[in-house]
Amino acid sequence: MPLRLYNTLSRQVEEFTPLESGKVKMYVCGPTVYADAHIGHAMAALVFDMVRRYLTYRGYRVTYVTNFTDVDDKIIRRANETGQDPIEMANAFAQKYLEHLADLNIQPADIYPKVSETMDEILRVIGGLSDEAYAYELNGDVYFRVSKDADYGKLSRRTLDEALAGTRVDEDLRKESPADFALWKSAKPGEPAWQSPWGPGRPGWHIECTAMCLHHLGETIDIHGGGNDLIFPHHENEIAQSESLTGKPFSRYWMHNGMLQLSGEKMSKSLGNLITIDEFLSDHSPDALRMLIFTGHYRKPVAFNKDSLESAERALERLLTGLRPAKGSKTTGADADTLREATENARAAFIASMDDDFNTSGGMAAMFELVRAINTARDKGLTGPFFEAAQRTLHELGAILGMKLEGARAESGVDVAAAPFIDLLVEVRGDLRMAKQWAAADKIRNQLNALGIVIEDTPTGAEWRYEEPAA
RNA sequence: GGCGACGUCGCCAAGUGGUAAGGCAGGGGUCUGCAAAACCCCCACCGCCGGUUCGAGUCCGGCCGUCGCCUCCA
Question: Which residue of A230, A241, A257, A395 has the lowest C-beta tally within 10 Å?
């Protein structure tokens, strides 16, 4: 079964075939680093991390490039306000972003290009476009001549007239057409500037991705990704620049994730309705965010609110029940066969779903089916290789979605040093129960519970684990 | 206004034209001293109106509604 994915360019689900067999060149637009990243950024990073992990799982060798925009109006403004050097400030935010990505269990990209480090390539691209009359200069500014690009608008499905309809009133009136966009901006006093054939200045926004792709991945890449708010004008303009310069298709597939929404609106810096990654991680696990996002489809908007987050956390807890240890002694027999079959079915169902445009929701369903099969097998006393294989498969499928599926006990909450004392209390409680001293036994259970230690009685004795105390 | 996406159980959310996955919540059981967990069972005529078809949540048209883009934006 081939992998199929939705291509924004064709507005259809297509079979995926990379340019070079077995290899995938992938570029994802990264953030402009002028403030703390929020979980909307995280969603894009998470979605494409999942895409990359799945492609890798399916045997592709993926080269993954994602950029930092570190030269930009907003960065300059913010730096001026706070009296910092713009490049240094951007660098600090980029560094922090990288830490967030690591905290979110996002695999590092192969290359993280920055505008400030790609200047030679950017100038070369602009020069090439100028040579072919795709660009023109106006007193140190260089603009892309949209009218010369015959298929401009093919990604966002807009005609030139439509693209013009909403253009700003305070446009540079010297431009040949309002739809023309800046490739190079001449330097104003107090701004960081680089030397160019058109005088000192800095690049326009869209040109960086074109230059970075060309430089690091070549003239045609396989997958270009980003949020769907980038389709126009950013990605449209990238296509215009790249294909005008090379005469070749820029990206074979365009993938766009839906927006994370807070109270019914897109989470964004300009709207001010955001939750930073820092804020999120202070209260919740990275797995919970993945659960929330991958419960739905990556192209659809995700509602982020208290309810959806709580629901995701409970769903995650349920997933984790499948990883609790076996407690019986059977290793073979009908229950083992049933579990083995369920394990194979779950993996097959997971792959079938993911092959269909990364249907993580269906993949998640397969994981829950597996959890039920594991829990049933455990209740029936199964242990041993088949039980372990099932749990390993659960981990394996979770890992494709970037989930660590770590039990709370192993992860945090309980100081390792406290464990023997808890064991002791649980043992004492067991003795009290034997003596039918219910009140005293329940007191231990309740008080430990208040501290986040959950005790469960089983036929083979009491077990305990740590859980975040309910708020 | 233009372009586009979407409207499926109380909530979140899948769904290749043939009578609706999964999760959360809820109800009923098994187990248990009680509890918790786990397991079993129950819980949807798919926004509205037309049309195509033997048959539509799934295709076509219209309407209503939500969201995104059109300006920096993951």
Answer: A395
Mean pLDDT of chain A: 91
Q: Does the nearest atom of strand B lie within 7 Å of A306's Cβ?
A: no
∠ CA A348-A353-A354 to the nearest 5 degrees? Answer: 100
Instruction: Name A residues 66-125 whose Cβ lies under 7 Å from strand B.
Output: 69, 72, 74
Contact, A431 CB vs strand B, < 7 Å: no
Task: Give me the domains of chain A, ranges plus CATH numbers.
Answer: 4-279 (3.40.50.620), 306-406 (1.20.120.640), 410-466 (no CATH)
Contact A391, A340 (CB under 8 A): no
Calculate mean pLDDT across residues A219-225. 97
Predicted confidence band of residue A469 (pLDDT cuts 50, 70, 90): low
Using the CB atom, is residue A15 less than 7 Å from strand B?
no
**With 60 as the cut, is the pLDDT of residue A396 above it?**
yes
- Give the span between the Cα atoms of A59 and A54, in whole angstroms: 9
Whether residue A412 is predicted with pLDDT greater than 70 in this model: the reply is no
